[in-house]
């Protein structure tokens, strides 16, 4: 019986929740040890409630399914039986444990099942009570998350009678004034800034102080987060002197972070340092010095952009091999295995040679063809071979695009999808789960990290349609970002004085892109996104021509993987140092490509 069909009475819920063992629970995740999925309906129902993932940063939907892949997922908001939720609402007043009471009341409020503002207020009070118990037990991370949820929920209800905004904000202000940041001053201060808790001068001063302390300890990422908050406060205070001072400190912090890294990884921080100085007048000389340093780091990055491959056996064995290959020590290891071992960008020179040999003397090479999209519109023509060298080249390139598409279809279905599903079923990727690959990445501007985080997460969950919609515009912007790091201006100046950004095709044709990504990855990216014979994915998605099935198809999966390959490859040496010994013990090393 599904959870949507499960009818549970108030008394059945109370029989479970009144058990003494529940009084000692600190976190909902501990409940799974007390409740059995194969027990009573009430146990099963409550087990599903307490094992949902808690995401306090999402004001409207703070709970998500424990697992999700494609269209399948465990219960989440909206999946519970309505009558049972009404009965649970009647039982929640007798739940003594604040952690469990907070979860139940919050879910009832989110489900809008027999709930009113009073039950939401109960959830806020219970979250604060739970946070205090967690602080006392030394569980500062969990406590911080409960406080954040209480704050966001109370602000959703700030216009309701007897709201709890004052209670929660006073609690947060007390923590800040006592310098009791629960070990997470960045999160606490950001929440205070977001909800206007405390004076701006206080937040500015505290964030600068925390940034100085963290920078001195070599915690550059946390220090920069605090400096970004300081900039926001200075802007609201309309104090240009403070703003410029913070930007200069931020540039110094980025530069120090770059110096603490291997040269190949320092490009992102140095570019961020230059961007910070651009907001400060009379810093041109220092910007130029950082650009010179950036060139040295870029040369090191180009030398590191190599990978290795392991020859595959029979096609029938590829699925099992790919699944076994991504069973790493942790999520980071598994992702590196996915991009470095399961597949590598198709060798385009070898595929071109194979395609040319296969077509030599073939009637298909002589006749030519027309290509149509899903609506039956002619989108490309492959010319028949004649004495024109140009016709032969066009025909070969069109057949090469088709050959690459066929190769990608095999790789996606036999290698990538099974491996991605294995990773998705093995790990939960929460907020900032992709941060090790995105922060300070030469491909990702700092203020675009969330786009990549959501796009990668969507693909990992099997929603490649959403991933493609998010990632395609970001790829174009990131290509400009990479070209700008090389000292070029990725714009065009027209005769009438107008200036416009370079388009995707021009960006992909820039020699800098191939120098950094390599011929094979650049060709694959260009073909998937812009080649009409392959499918012209960027144009099809941007203009809404593509069907949902096609948007969730092989091209979107392959694009997602290539983006991940680009993001992960600069950190290859880190993976090799920490994880590769165990990997190569199982998969003997082959010659590098």
Structure characteristics:
593 residues; Serine Threonine Protein Phosphatase 5, Tetratricopeptide repeat; two-stranded antiparallel sheet; two-stranded antiparallel ribbon; 29 helices; 8 strands
Structure description:
It is a single chain. By secondary structure, this protein is mainly alpha-helical. It has 3 domains: 1-183, no CATH class; 199-304, Serine Threonine Protein Phosphatase 5, Tetratricopeptide repeat (Alpha Horseshoe); 315-572, no CATH class. 62% of the residues lie in helices and 4% in strands. The protein has a two-stranded antiparallel sheet with strand order 1-2. A two-stranded antiparallel sheet has the order 3-4. α10 packs antiparallel against α11 and α11 (240-259) packs antiparallel against α12. Mean pLDDT is 85; it is low at 306-313.
Number of separate strands: 8
Helicity range: 55-70%
Main sheet characteristics: 2 strands, antiparallel
Overall shape: globular
- Uncertain segments of ≥5 residues (pLDDT<50)? 306-313
Sheet/helix structural class: mainly alpha
Trace the largest sheet across and list its strands: 1-2
Mean pLDDT: 85
Q: How many domains, in number, for the residues? A: 3
- Roughly what fraction of the amino acids lie in strands? under 5%
How far is it from the N-terminal to the C-terminal residue, by CA?
52 Å
The radius of gyration over CA amounts to: 28 Å
Please give the count of helices: 29
